Amino acid sequence: MGQVTDLVSRKLRDNKILKMNCLAIVADVTQTIEAFRTSNLLLIECCPIDCSKKMRDNTGLNNCVYLRLTNHGFKKGESPVNEENINTLCEIAGTYC
């Protein structure tokens, strides 16, 4: 699912719906966290361990919208990387923006 979330993020960016950023930089750099506190964020979670949600909670980024793909029937290691899934997830993500 990581590849699918990457492609969905890129498509949302290319269609000028959202900017794309790496989750690690959002969580790791204090100055970046402060900058993201004033941004509208969509966290696309593909991990059943909820890594991005934990990062959000630990950094206090309360302005995040959280999209957990498993809540929409997509499973890590089971959902294929194809145009249909990418387009479906872009449509779902668009409702969160």
Describe this structure in words.
The chain has one domain (2-96). It is globular, with a radius of gyration of 13 Å. The protein has 97 residues and is mainly α. Strand 1, helix 4 (51-59) and strand 2 form a beta-alpha-beta unit. It has a two-stranded parallel sheet. The chain contains 5 helices and 2 strands. The mean pLDDT is 82. The chain starts with a helix and ends with a helix.
Tally of individual helices: 5
* Mean pLDDT figure: 82
For the sheet with most strands, the description reads: 2 strands, parallel
Q: What is the number of beta strands?
A: 2
Shape: globular
Helix content: 40-55%
What is the H-and-E element order?
Answer: HHHEHEH
Using only CA atoms, what is the Rg?
13 Å
